[in-house]
Amino acid sequence: MFLLNKKYKLFWGDLHNHNAVGYAKGSLERSIEIAREHLDFFAFTGHASWHDMPIMPGERHMHWVKGFEAHTKHWPKTRKLIQEANSEGFVAFLGYEWHSSAFGDYCLIFPEDQPDLFLPDSAGKLLEFARNKGALAIPHHVGYKLGWRGYNWEHFDPRVSPVVEVFSEHGCTMSDRAPYPMILHSNGGRSVSQTIEYQLVRGLRFGFVASTDDHFGFPGAYGEGLVGVWAEDLKRASLIEALRARRTVAATGDRIGLAVTLNGQPMGTELPYAPDRSVEVSVEGADSLEMIELMRNGRAVQRFFPEDLISSPLKLPGRVKCRFQYGWGPWAALAMERICQWDVKIGIEGGKFTNAEKHFQSGPFAEELRDRLDRLSDRELHLKSFTSRKQAYLEDPTKSLVLELEADPSAKLILEFSQPTKKRFVVPAADLILENAVEFTGVFTTESFVLHRLVSGQDYTSEVHWQDRGRDKQEGGDMYFVRARQHNNQWAWSSPIWVG
Prior knowledge:
The chain has 500 residues and is mainly beta. The chain has 3 domains: 2-253, Metal-dependent hydrolases (TIM Barrel, Alpha-Beta Barrel), CATH 3.20.20.140; 277-310 and 458-499, Immunoglobulin-like, CATH 2.60.40; 318-453, Immunoglobulin-like (Sandwich), CATH 2.60.40. It is 15% helix and 39% strand. It has helices at 2-7, 28-38, 61-85, 123-133, 196-202, 236-245, 457-460, and strands at residues 9-14, 41-50, 91-99, 105-110, 136-140, 163-168, 171-172, 207-210, 226-231, 248-251, 257-262, 265-266, 270-271, 277-284, 289-296, 299-304, 318-328, 340-359, 372-377, 380-387, 399-419, 423-428, 437-440, 448-451, 455-456, 461-468, 478-486, 491-494, 497-499. Strands 1, 2, 3, 4, 5, 9, 10, 13, 15, 16, 27, 28 and 29 form a 13-stranded mixed sheet that branches. Strands 17, 18, 19, 20, 21, 22, 23, 24 and 25 form a 9-stranded antiparallel sheet that branches. Strand 6 (163-168) and strand 7 (171-172) form a beta hairpin. The two termini are 26 Å apart.
């Protein structure tokens, strides 16, 4: 990815998630263990306060009150566990969430330990505290109506809020017409003037992040939002520097590696006026790319469809990606409580695995439930997992692995199941060029899985070079960002670059 990966690496994490240290579910120990399994970094942001919370019918507000009490009581232990979680190859940040009906919600992320909780009654006091501590204050679910926990943009301070959360399990707040509407909560729909693109066109400057806001103690839950950070290395200081510099990608679920430069400078940069702008974009998806768009001042000015350049069908040998998706089952009304355990060894003959991207999600909650993938060799993986429709995000019970592999023409994928039943499947890789493999582990209505069609590098990677020449000076300058969409409706947005 040209300039960016010469100096930086892309790391994936979750900066907004919850558990029972607050009013959600699961222990913090469980959250840390799950985050370590499939993320590079995470911040735990427990529910801390809501000073202007309304009194709710049936004393429902006491649910929040008790959660805040639990969070405050646990704070010394929270600090200790987060400190201990940091290790080679994994970074954990201390944080907490501050609610407000009038000001909106912030996640405070601390670069180091923070002994005391500061829970003021105004955004001004909170942001002053964040500035003094060198902390980040990240607004989220900004698109809700002002006064109903929508973000109060009049208090926006780029010194402590260099990035804003644009997507979570609440939905997408890029605009009122963006994918993933906000329909899962009681706060109502998106207000146009509250959305990200409206505020950018208005002249505010900030980068993009996405995070889950998961409430089942499952950081990084698939489909609920992830942030990609281009940093020099996987250390707290480097990640904070990258967030402040806005070298970030907001992704809905699949880890769509998106790198953007304008006149050689990366996303998040503010450049002086220049009439000619050269935009370079590099994308590596987890599946086939459908469209890449260059946005300028809130409008799409360039579109590119990568599949237009595919002139020949996929052929082996070569490096390809294959999605193993599992979790369909007997999900009729009487089986909604069912939890299925999976134990499968995934092997390859005539090839090797070079990577496996884990797409695990949270539902259902149980303290002891875990998803784990062990790499036994470059030819064999061991997956232990669980699926259910109960409490699954958008009622999707499936999980998946995106397997990156190098395969010969005669290569075969071999799946040896111990659970949910003992069964063996052998699928020639060549058969997955034009057709997928839908297989059942038993009779009809038993659990099933899909080995999706192979995608080649020309399907999931793309590089685009756009020119925007002869631009006159604009009042407030020009603002550019890139958005990418896969055929499976997974999205990613790069932080903006400003010129002038």
